[in-house]
């Protein structure tokens, strides 16, 4: 019997439809507003502390609590996507987020404001993974990088633009307007998406596993709480006990998912080594971006004595670079192999982080931050694309949920680590007789040394990823004559997709190849289509 193969030459010719673009814009706008609200309030912390008579440890929960609930909400997204129509999920996300925004605009005390932030997190927790899942299901394979570039634009540009937006609002209005200004954009998002969002899943019977959801909540929240309170608890037994409980909860959660017919999250995504390596890179890169974005306003305001408005303007060029770089790099991925972008990006981040440590003026900070956000675009977009491409289509929703959960977890950890570092180092500088602005300048430089190390570790992981991919390429090249005529084609690392039985590959590379799936390995997915 002759096996029929799809015509792979047809797929690269398909273009992204206008309806899909409108859908992505609608969801991207909603998600952008969610992340923007998260970071724009940072610039208003001093005003909130004074107005509500609360400490920095309390006001910090506007960010930590938001990220915490977001990290807990996202793992349930695969179940929601499989169970409910995506158009209905989109409508619920907009309504819930709008309700939280209205509550924040009318808040008269801190508990009311915190409740508003938590409600908004629920809306973002639906929209963020839904955006990625729709792209993976509807975008042509060759256009995934460009479309996922929009997702990275949201996750990369919003944290950078947030302080700028918050600074302008606080300079001329008050913090209530951070929420009020978002309302018209929510209406635009709803009007664009309600008629264009496709129903990509048929309804499936089943119920969500409450024990699984609780275990995920305990595990993820435990990690964030332990990191957030590390400084306040002085690193004592409470930190390690909380971490131990979190790790045990996540281990039990993973074991439970493996034995469920319909798991909350398909943890078997981590059996794909390429996906696992990509998640590690996302953990380090996203944590670095949000950590540095937390440190820079402190450097500018307490180290250089600038106002919130001036600090916002210093960060503006970097915000623009992040916004432009994400889709631009994404559009190049259909012709270039993602790991080489990731390697270049980590090299740039390591060098720029060292430069930021030695920056002697706000102009130097502005220039180096622009380069920092450009380097981050080289890592975030290609890694998201490459990571999700390692999974079969049936795991798209699960992979998207894992990726977005890790991004939020990384952001919370990065922010908490940055906060702990600069607080501790500033206290040490003061105890050494260094006071005022000089204490924060020294604390910032010492804090950035940690992020330099993180960039170096990320570079090592990226090199391992590239090495594994090269091993697969050599395997495919040596056995291409077996792959139904592929040996007659002009195959290059940029233009090939093959599925080669692992029995034809050297046993020495079976353990390190990316995309291993039982009897097959996926080799360098790109614009050639799919068997």
TrEMBL record:
Q: Which Pfam families match?
A: MFS_1
Q: Which GO terms describe its molecular function?
A: transmembrane transporter activity
User: Which terms are listed as keywords in the entry?
Assistant: Cell membrane, Membrane, Transmembrane, Transmembrane helix, Transport
Gene Ontology cellular-component terms for this entry are:
plasma membrane
Q: How does it sit in the membrane?
A: Multi-pass membrane protein
InterPro entries linked: EmrB-like, MFS, MFS_dom, MFS_trans_sf
| Localisation per UniProt entry | Cell membrane
Question: Mind telling me which PROSITE patterns this protein's record contains?
Answer: MFS
Q: Is Cell wall biogenesis/degradation among this UniProt entry's keywords?
A: no
Q: Does the keyword Transmembrane apply?
A: yes
**This protein's superkingdom?**
Bacteria
Q: What is its main location?
A: membrane
Record domain Major facilitator superfamily (MFS) profile: where = 23-470
What residue intervals traverse the membrane? 15-37, 57-81, 88-108, 114-136, 148-169, 175-197, 209-231, 237-254, 275-296, 308-329, 341-372, 448-470
Q: What is the protein name for this chain?
A: Lincomycin resistance protein LmrB
Please name the source species: Bifidobacterium tissieri
């Amino acid at each position: 019997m002759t096996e029929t193969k799809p015509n792979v030459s047809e797929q690269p010719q398909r273009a992204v439809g206008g309806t899909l673009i409108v859908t992505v814009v609608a969801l991207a706008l909603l998600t952008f507003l969610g992340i923007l609200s998260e970071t724009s309030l940072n610039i208003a912390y001093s005003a909130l502390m004074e107005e509500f008579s609360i400490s920095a440890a309390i006001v910090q929960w506007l960010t930590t609590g938001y990220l915490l609930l977001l990290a807990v909400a996202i793992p349930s997204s695969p179940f929601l996507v499989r169970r409910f129509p995506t158009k209905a999920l989109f409508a619920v996300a907009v309504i819930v987020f709008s309700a939280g925004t209205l509550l924040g605009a009318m808040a008269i005390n801190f508990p009311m404001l915190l409740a508003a932030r938590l409600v908004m997190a629920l809306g973002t927790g639906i929209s963020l993974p839904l955006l990625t899942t729709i792209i993976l299901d509807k975008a042509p394979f060759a256009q995934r990088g460009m479309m996922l570039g929009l997702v990275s634009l949201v996750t990369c540009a919003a944290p950078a633009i947030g302080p700028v937006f918050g600074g302008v609002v606080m300079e001329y209005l008050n913090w209530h307007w951070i929420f009020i200004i978002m309302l018209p954009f929510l209406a635009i998002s709803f009007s664009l998406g309600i008629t264009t969002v496709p129903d990509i899943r048929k309804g499936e019977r089943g119920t969500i596993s409450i024990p699984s959801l609780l275990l995920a909540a305990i595990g993820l929240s435990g990690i964030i709480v332990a990191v957030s309170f590390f400084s306040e608890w002085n690193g004592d037994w409470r930190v390690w006990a909380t971490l131990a409980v979190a790790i045990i909860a996540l281990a039990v959660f993973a074991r439970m998912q493996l034995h469920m017919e319909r798991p909350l999250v398909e943890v078997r995504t981590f059996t794909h080594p390429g996906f696992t390596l990509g998640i590690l890179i996302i953990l380090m890169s996203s944590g670095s971006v949000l950590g540095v974005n937390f440190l820079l306003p402190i450097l500018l305001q307490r180290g250089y004595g600038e106002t919130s408005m001036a600090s916002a303007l210093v960060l503006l060029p970097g915000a623009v670079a992040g916004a432009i770089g994400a889709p631009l790099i994404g559009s190049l991925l259909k012709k270039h192999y993602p790991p080489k972008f990731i390697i270049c990006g980590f090299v740039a981040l390591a060098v720029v982080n060292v430069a930021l440590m030695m920056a002697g003026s706000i102009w130097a900070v502005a220039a180096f931050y622009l380069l920092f956000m450009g380097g981050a675009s080289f890592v975030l977009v290609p890694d998201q694309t490459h990571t999700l491409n390692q999974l079969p289509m049936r795991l798209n929703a699960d992979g998207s949920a894992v990726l977005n959960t890790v991004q939020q977890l990384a952001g919370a950890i990065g922010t908490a680590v940055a906060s702990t570092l600069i607080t501790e180092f500033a206290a040490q500088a003061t105890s050494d007789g260094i006071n005022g602005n000089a204490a924060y300048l020294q604390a910032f430089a010492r804090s950035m040394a940690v992020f330099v190390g993180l960039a170096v570790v990320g570079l090592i992981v990226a090199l391992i990823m590239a090495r594994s991919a090269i091993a697969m390429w050599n395997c495919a090249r040596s056995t291409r004559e077996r792959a139904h005529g592929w040996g007659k084609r002009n195959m290059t690392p940029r233009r090939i997709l093959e599925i080669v039985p692992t029995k034809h590959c050297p046993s020495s590379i079976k353990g390190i190849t990316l995309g291993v799936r039982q009897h097959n390995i996926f080799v360098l997915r790109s614009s050639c289509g799919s068997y």
